[in-house]
Design goal:
With about 850 residues, the protein is mostly helical. It has a 5-stranded mixed β-sheet with strand order 1-2-3-5-4. The radius of gyration is 32 Å and the shape is globular.
Length: about 850
């Protein structure tokens, strides 16, 4: 992944250790306990002794009248003074006044601060003469040794999209003035433009260390954190507003965040405040227009567009912004149309072309996406990491195998395709048929499903950058992308459940005209996983009950925002499934269908709930809370720890009486069993674990009671007890592939009689579990194939044996013979003979194949 380096301005590859993570960002800010910034670049910060210092401070704090008053006392011909006054005018939307003041100063001093401000003003307004002004300033980066002049050149180069040169200029300026907040903030903005968020955050931190009230740095850090940690980003922006209540950039940023959380009234309020300060703010007007668009207020949208274009006639960003918000609301076809309108106004808008490429990817038009991305690079040749990543990902996709089956198009990595297509395609068809019938809706196709063996390729396909830690799949309406089982270690996720989850989105998104809120969208998909197969249910019941004990469940009014909170998003999925289960219990499938159609009519949540179900969030909250009490009341009691004692750290001598006093406390019994096991007192440990397992049968993982009892039984060579405990563990810990494999080994060692229905069912269930979790387990497929063949299901056996062959078995002749036997039992004698001959070609003396060939030949003669 190319990026701008702090120590060099060449393009480099970021190793995995330098990729952004939520933990890194939170930790990076923690030592400051502050926020940070970015859109509006701060002016050059004069030395403290400079007469301009007070003017600069007043500007940073949004005291624009004070800026003008102080500047009026200084030399009116000084380009720095002119620039300061012009900034104050620009901040309040007085663009014409600023231009009148700046133009003569820029003519007198074409490399001055005034010239830079004029060039940036022209750039913002889309004026064709902007570059000519900025190009006169840029060479200063190669000729000056003054840090402020270098920073000025850096700002000009950034505006010209010559980011590598801007980086070099800021690096030199920062080397001379490492604690100057304006220089560090400007450098951070360059890094942020280049998608190097780690270095951007570092620069903003250094600016805040130098001046905790430097609002551009506060906002820069907020923008850096916006995708990974919205709550922290919002806190930073609010901190900036405390310093500068007139910050239009902060209000616009908060409006963007509010829209992400579906808090439209909050967004409106923030935008109104922004426009009260600057009635001509193009960003604010564009976001007002975008909000009107996603609310289906077409007349309001066009009126706001007209206002914006009256200020800047070529400001295509007004349409690009609307397209971006439409895409955020999963309305990707509309996003494509809006972004094309942006390009009609400004055909050289490389950002709009990049957006168009991303939107087209999400509609499934990959050739169109490639063309848009390549056109963007022709206009702006900077090694933009998003564009480069997307094009590289498309090159990877070109090597995938494409399987078309009716309205379903599946793209699979060529080495995985022979195995996965045998399972994924039938599963996808079954999901679409089941869900279409349940929701009484047939989705528009073709439906494209792409399965990636490398998680970062999946992430790039969705957002243009590696990461998306925790995400397993994504749906855009007609396009589904997801990790393959190879993308993560076996047992980390259930890929079949993920595919079913995403195909549920296909139905519900299309049925609601892409308008249902995220809480309902994710809730329905999570619920349908469990409904399809109970073992696919998300294994978060204990985590959820613990959260309810500690903080309470997420309030329904705050539910959508929870999906923007990295601390809550995982449990929000689980609670969403529970909420939909409540809706289904009360209103049935018919009620849920009515609700989806209400959203499809453009109604907001309050109106949709009232129209479709004659209820409200507040009324739902009461019934939902009652359901949670029924489902989790007992579990919450056994999970509660009296006196909040740190039971797991208690010494054994303290733990014994504590556990005796609290026989209904799960953690006390688990801790006692664990401590006794460590002390070698396994008999007593087993008793404690048995009590713990009785209190919380769904406990999972290696530290769970059943897992520890299985381990003790194995240590004692008590195979039957180990089998019983592993069976209980696997029944609740569906993704625990290692426990399933261990159980299969023990069952094999004990020579379970698979000729009996009970024995065959027991072995089949275990191997089905292993193959479902890890479809690339050759042995599981081979064993499962023999089991289902013995019970007479020749077609199912053939599928397993084909998977074995695709995975490259050690004994290929045996695998070919297995497949031949399944074909013969299915009556496919020609196919059976072909596979038998292939086996004999490898091993001419292989008796089983020879005998099978004789049967086939003799049977053919008969």
């Amino acid at each position: 992944m190319p990026y701008l380096d702090r120590t060099s301005w060449r393009v480099s590859d970021v190793p995995p250790s330098r990729r952004l993570s939520v933990a890194l960002l939170i930790a990076a800010l923690a030592f400051l306990a502050l926020p940070t910034s970015g859109t509006a670049q701060a002016p050059r910060r004069p030395a403290v002794s400079s007469p301009l210092a007070a003017v600069s401070r007043a500007w940073v704090e949004g005291k624009y009248d004070e800026v003008e008053a102080l500047a009026d006392k200084l030399d009116p011909r000084d380009p720095n003074v002119v620039a300061m006054k012009a900034r104050a005018a620009i901040a309040r939307g007085k663009y014409a006044d600023a231009e009148v003041a700046l133009r003569p100063a820029a003519m007198r001093a074409p490399t001055s601060e005034a010239a830079l401000e004029l060039g940036l003003l022209y750039t913002m307004l889309g004026r064709s003469d902007a570059n000519a002004v900025l190009e006169k300033i840029a060479p200063t980066a190669d000729t000056s040794n003054d840090p402020y002049e270098l920073a000025r050149a850096g700002r000009a180069l950034r505006a010209l999209r010559r980011l590598h040169e801007a980086n070099a200029a800021y690096r030199e300026a920062a080397a001379m003035l490492p604690t100057d907040p304006a220089i560090q903030t400007g450098w951070g903005d360059v890094f942020l433009d280049g998608h190097n968020v780690r270095e951007a955050l570092r620069s903003f931190q250094m600016a805040m260390q130098a001046d905790p009230r430097w609002t551009p740095a506060l906002l820069g850090a907020a923008r850096t954190l916006a995708d990974e940690n919205p709550p922290q980003a919002i806190a930073l922006a609010k901190r900036a507003l405390e310093v500068n209540p007139s910050s239009v950039d902060a209000q616009v940023f908060l409006a963007e965040q509010a829209l992400d959380a579906e808090h439209k009234d909050e967004a409106r309020e923030a935008l109104a405040k922004a426009l009260a300060v600057n009635p001509s703010s193009l960003e604010a007007h564009a976001l007002v227009a975008a909000l009107a668009y996603v609310e289906d207020k077409q007349q309001d949208f066009e009126a706001e567009v007209a206002k914006t274009l009256a200020i800047a006639p070529s400001y295509g960003e007004v349409f690009r912004t609307a397209g971006e918000l439409a895409a955020h609301n999963y309305r990707f076809d509309e996003a494509v149309a809006l972004t094309r309108r942006a390009l009609e106004l400004d055909r050289r808008n490389s950002r709009a072309l990049t957006d168009l490429g991303i939107h087209l990817l999400r509609t499934g038009d990959e050739p169109g996406a490639r063309a848009a991305l390549e056109a963007s690079i022709e206009i702006d040749p900077f090694d933009d990491v998003v564009r480069k990543n997307l094009l590289k990902m498309l090159d990877t996709l070109d090597k995938f195998v494409t399987v078309r089956d009716g309205d379903l198009v599946m793209r699979l990595q060529k080495d995985e395709a022979p195995v996965l297509q045998e399972y994924a395609i039938p599963l996808a068809h079954r999901a679409l048929a089941t869900l279409s019938a349940r929701y009484e809706f047939t989705p528009r196709g073709p439906i494209l499903v792409e399965i990636f063996p490398t998680h970062d390729d999946f992430a790039v396909r969705n957002v243009g950058l590696p990461g998306m830690i925790g995400a397993l799949g994504a749906c855009f309406g007609r396009v589904v992308t997801m990790d393959s089982p190879h993308a993560r270690p076996p047992g980390e996720f259930q890929w079949e459940a993920t595919l079913w989850h995403e195909l549920t989105h296909v139905i519900t998104l299309q049925m609601s005209n892409q308008r249902l809120p995220r809480w309902l969208s994710e809730g329905l998909s999570t619920y349908e996983e469990k409904r399809a197969r109970p073992e696919w249910a998300r294994q978060q019941d204990i985590e959820f009950a613990t959260m309810v004990n500690r903080d309470g469940a997420i309030k329904l009014r705050d539910f959508n925002a929870a999906f923007q909170n990295p601390k809550l998003i995982s449990i929000a999925y689980y609670q969403g499934g529970l909420l939909v289960e409540h809706l289904q219990n009360v209103y049935g499938d018919a009620g849920i269908r009515k609700l989806l159609r209400a959203y499809g009519q453009g109604l907001d949540t309050d109106a949709a709930l009232k129209t479709a179900l004659n209820t409200s969030f507040d009324e739902l909250q009461t019934g939902f809370d009652q359901m949670l009490d029924r489902l989790f009341g007992d579990m919450r009691k056994v999970l509660a720890t009296p006196d909040n004692a740190d039971v797991m750290r208690m010494p054994l001598e303290t733990l014994r009486p504590y556990a005796a006093e609290h026989p209904r406390t799960y953690v006390a019994q688990l801790a006692l069993g664990t401590a006794l096991r460590k002390a070698g007192q396994t008999e007593e440990a087993m008793q404690a674990f048995e009590r713990a397992a009785a209190l919380l049968p769904t406990a999972r993982g290696d530290a769970s009671p059943h897992a520890q009892m299985a381990a003790i039984a194995l240590e004692k060579k008590d195979t039957s007890r180990a089998i019983a405990e592993l069976t209980a563990l696997v029944a609740n810990d569906f993704d625990n592939v290692e426990a399933a494999r261990q159980l299969a080994t023990l069952l094999t060692q004990t020579k379970v009689d698979v000729s009996t229905a009970a024995g065959a069912a027991k072995m089949t269930a275990v191997y089905e579990r292993i193959a479902a979790i890890d479809p690339f387990d050759t042995d599981a497929h081979a064993k499962l194939g023999r089991l289902v063949l013995d019970r007479g299901d020749a077609d199912a056996a053939a599928r397993e044996f084909k998977a074995v062959l695709a995975l490259g078995p050690v004994d290929r002749a045996a695998a070919l013979t297995d497949l031949a036997e399944s074909y013969m039992k299915a009556g496919k004698r020609v196919d059976a003979k072909k596979q038998t001959l292939a086996a004999l070609e490898i091993a001419p003396t292989y008796e089983r194949a020879q005998e099978l060939l004789l049967k086939l030949v003799d049977g053919g003669r008969q």
